[in-house]
Amino acid sequence: MATAICSIGATGNNVVWRGMMINDGSGWKKSSMAMTGDGSAQLNARLWSSRRPGKPIRAQPVMGNKNEGKGLFAPLVVLARNIIGKKPFNQLRGKAIALHSQVITEFCKSIGADAKQRQGLIRLAKKNGEKLGFLA
Fold it and tell me: For residues 35 and 120, what is the distance between their CA atoms, to the nearest angstrom?
């Protein structure tokens, strides 16, 4: 990307670019560009013409549990995962979560709660599981 330093003089609505130094990565060079009037379009074209197109830089998402290693049951969960292996542990955890969701659904049916309340209870169960360390 080009970097520019310029000297500007302004009178009324007219802007005069008196001199410009441009660094295109190979060092500073004096520009012979001189403009009068509102030269912002010309200046932008000059500055951005040497910009190399490319993909924007994005931060990589961080995977994992924010409460990993925290909570009352986290050491027990980590120990169980290390003993039985990650894949079988995740399968067992998925079955337990599904069973718990079914229990919550049956409870909501018995008390007459609607789908929105049921979903809220499932989300609350997930938050509580994170805090207690079940999702470590």
Answer: 63
CA distance 101 to 66: 22
Of all helices (H) and strands (E), which one includes residue 20?
strand 14-23
Tell me the average confidence (pLDDT) per consecutive run of 10 residues in the chain, 136 residues long: 50 50 64 54 61 67 64 90 94 93 91 91 90 86
Residues in the chain: 136
Residue 24's alpha-carbon distances to 14, 33, 56, 112, 121, in angstroms, are: 28, 15, 19, 69, 58
How far CA 4 is from CA of 57, 82, 89, in Å, comes to: 23, 57, 57
pLDDT in the model for residue 16: 47
Residue 39: which of 65, 71, 6, 88 has the closest Cα? 6
For 119, phi then psi, to 5°, come to -65, -40
